[in-house]
Amino acid sequence: MNFETVIGLEVHVELKTKSKIFSPSPVDYGAEPNINTNVIDWAYPGVLPVPNRKAYSMGLMVAMALHMEINRDSFFDRKNYVYPDNTKSYQITQNYFPLAHDGYIEVNVAGKTKKIGIEEIHVEEDAGKNTHEKNYSYVDLNRQGTPLIEIVSKPEMSSPEEAYQYLENLRKIVQFTGVSDVKMEEGSMRVDCNLSLRPYGADHLGTKAEIKNINSFNYAREALTFEQKRQAEALRRGEQIHLQTRRWDESTKSTILMRLKEGSSDYRFVPEPDIPPIHIDQNWIDEVKASMPESPKDRINRYTKDLSLSEYDANVLTQTKEMSDFFDQTVNLGADPKQTANYLMGDVSGYLNSEHLDLLDSKLTPENLADMIKMITKGTISSKIAKKVLKETMESGVEVNSYVKENKLAQNSNAEELLPMVKELLDQNQKSVDDFKNGKDRAIKFLMGQIMKQTKGKANPQMVNQLILKEIKKR
Amino acid sequence: MNFNSLTDLHQALKNKEISAQEVVKQTFAEIKEKEPKIAAFISLNEESSLKYAGEIDEKGDFSNFLTGIPLAIKDNIVTNGITTTAASKILENFVPIYDATVVKKLKNAGAIVTGKLNMDEFAMGSSTETSAFKITKNAWDQTKVPGGSSGGSAAAVASRQVLGSLGTDTGGSIRQPAAFNGVVGLKPTYGAVSRWGVIAFASSLDQVGPITTNVEDNAHLLNVIAGHDEKDATSANESCFSDYLEDLNKGVKNLKIGIIKDYLTEGVMPKVAESVKNAATILEKAGAKIEEVSLPNIKYAVPTYYIIASSEASTNLQRYDGIRYGYRTPNYHNLEELYVNTRTEGFGEEVKRRIMLGTFSLSTGFYEAYFKKAAQIRTLITNDFKRVFANYDLLIGPTTPTPAFGIGSKNDDPLQMYANDILTIPVNLAGLPAMSLPNGFVDGLPIGLQIIGKRFDEKTIYRLAKFYEDETKFYQQKPEIAR
């Protein structure tokens, strides 16, 4: 018997605000435990949450980028559960009337485009962090109150590959809005996967398993593939699937049962009385729309139409916002777009890959890249020298103009200096001149090589080429 | 004390007839003399009050109304450096590190915080008998309750230990004790006074308000504590506020006043109902237009209130877990036991009863039948008021069905205790402002006239109250202990 796979994803995204969602404490990672906290984060008697408008605007921006319906009046609710990293013993989230509902993300699998529905986006606060040691547990509340959005898909994905693409595209869309770093490895994007099977044609969904502890999109795909097979085999053996939470175990490449959910836990959701309804008027929507950064789609359009890049180049450059922003900044500084694209996609990407670096973590700046490309265009340096300069500035961050000057890397484009050298060379190599005249084009390469040797590679090759041709014609 | 009102005291300080230090010394002398009988205070702040009074005398500027004036604060309002317990064992030794906005405002205005006042534990009660620490007595008859939950706040003012205090009102907790003690108590419009630093009982209903011996003092205090606060998201915009003294002496001519018919029937003592009718006659003679009005849905107010308030309380009180502050049980072997035993030992019976009631009302399968239904009835009650206020400026009725009852007389029957709040609760559900104003005596005990206003129209409440007070002079009668 074959089964239809049904996958739904819940994605948490951390919003990059300066302060927390309900308190003025800063959001800042790597600080000493409990430094970025105040009476609100400690749930002191008498404190009140005041919502961070900026966080809500960021959520709104993502909702728009995902084509969602905005709830003009949304509410916060309390989700009650007792845990040491949850100081109030309730999390402020949105249960009854969230920020937005009914959007979609497009995926492209096996040449077919499919819209995956998004159920809702809600805005909520993160909890603190517990660390357990032998005799003690430590609670760090720095993360308590960090703004999150949860993006809940509809159960509309039918393969692990679709889920993978959904995640890739979601990450890309959110990244281009600039509201989050969306990095799985740093926890600014977290994914819970739900998967169930049902016989083809069945009306009702099967019982699902939820998979947690997924640290990358590849793991998500692997975990879902494993889980799909596990459930199918269990069903074929005549077993029943129970509602359960599992976790992905990277070392054994399998999902492991964490707990069975016997009846759902009771969070006793209640409207948050400390926060009035959030009313989103047209002005607010316009304000967010106006501040919405250009989407990948719009950038591709601009690159191909205005900058005459190929469809392929435009697609590669817009894979990440970092790369696309870097490209735009370099071009805005006057660098040739096609050259910029070539260097970013070629030498720069190669270097980053071999060093396992992110573009923004490397020492390369748009200013240096632009300066270098401008020197190539003007003929100040050769493309061969350029490779060397680029490597140097990527490694050390050296300022390109002064580096070229100090190391005397500029090529010689002075005809008055080069012409006597060419003349002398031709005088000494009559055979090559004859060869060339007899149609042996290769002869010119030899002559060029000689000049480059003499100038230690600094002669402008184009200029040398022209001078040689001109001089041979005269003879 | 030789003074009967904040206004008198302010004049004396301003005219340098008395120094702030002398006032503070006298105040603590009064407190020491009267406290054994009244038991209104949980903690006193004598040393720093004296020190602060000295600083004020040195400056010598008494132009501000509250400069150098001793006040006292209900113990569910946090005070920086002064123990704040909410009358609960679970916060017995809790010393806050910040001031509530209202406390900050009073301090900025030059007032002196003399101490913290007794109350029902976490403001849950109508008699101040659920306090974990002491039973406050009614200023007029020490065998009677002072009302609650702001029993300490009302009794301290009625016995003239201080001439002004702050209380909080979630279902009548300022107005009912004010009525029982013959003082003026106002519950402002929801959102008029910041709740930052007010230990939450039921967040959608809680509101801080002043208790004083007369109407003018009350308006003065409200002028200081009301206003927008960016630390409270439910606090109203600046545009909602005005000077509460503005209309004080305008009289009642042409005011349209509704007597709430439903407030004079079931369960209300005939003599209490009579006192409201007498008030209506006085107001009518002075040119007010009086008509009977009906609020049909307020018959559901008590169960509606107890579901909503308890539900909110059940989540608000979950933070008291013995980890970060307050009481922690010595009896535990693991986290679960720490939580359970701390709360079992730290909370009193009434608080536990309401936590259970609220937890039940929010549970899956019951939310729709209880909390959601209650929220819907709350809207109906709010609409009842809206409809009536389209045609009337103010509504009047009694504050309580009876005068103060005996200490211990209602402890066995929570429902009977809850029913006592029937006339005050609807105002909280609708978020309206309302005052209890002294309205004479029944069987030698004071009773209150309740005046209900439109949202943010405290000014008109004060206007009627000032006229009525001048006309009846009930406020001039003092209990034995204050003579």
Shape of chain A: elongated
Number of helices of chain B: 15
Oligomer: heterodimer
Q: Do you know the CATH architecture of the domain at 6-256 and 397-482 in chain B?
A: Alpha-Beta Complex
Strand content of chain B: 5-15%
Low-confidence stretches of chain A: none
N-to-C terminal Cα separation of chain B, in Å? 9 Å
Kindly report how far apart the N and C termini of chain A lie.
Answer: 86 Å
The CATH class of the domain at 6-256 and 397-482 in chain B is: Alpha Beta
Major β-sheet profile of chain B:
11 strands, mixed
Question: Structural class given helices, strands, pairing of chain B?
Answer: alpha/beta
Please provide a written account of the structure:
The complex is a heterodimer of chains A (475) and B (483). Chain A has 475 residues and is an alpha+beta fold. Chain A has 3 domains: 3-279, no CATH class; 294-406, no CATH class; 415-474, Arc Repressor Mutant, subunit A (Orthogonal Bundle), CATH 1.10.10. Helices cover 40% and strands 20% of the residues of chain A. In chain A, the strands form 4 sheets. In chain A, strands 2-6-7-10-1-11-12-13-14 form a 9-stranded mixed sheet. In chain A, strands 5-4-15 form a 3-stranded antiparallel sheet, with no helix packed on it. In chain A, helix 1 (53-65) crosses helix 4 (282-291), helix 9 packs antiparallel against helix 10 (383-396) and helix 13 (430-437) runs antiparallel to helix 14. Chain A is elongated. In chain B, 59% of the residues are buried. The N and C termini of chain B lie close together (9 Å). The model of chain B has no long low-confidence stretch (mean pLDDT 96). Chain B has 483 residues and is α/β, with parallel strands linked by helices. Chain B has a domain at 6-256 and 397-482: Amidase signature (AS) domain (Amidase signature (AS) enzymes, Alpha-Beta Complex), CATH 3.90.1300. Classes of the chains: A alpha+beta (475), B alpha/beta (483).
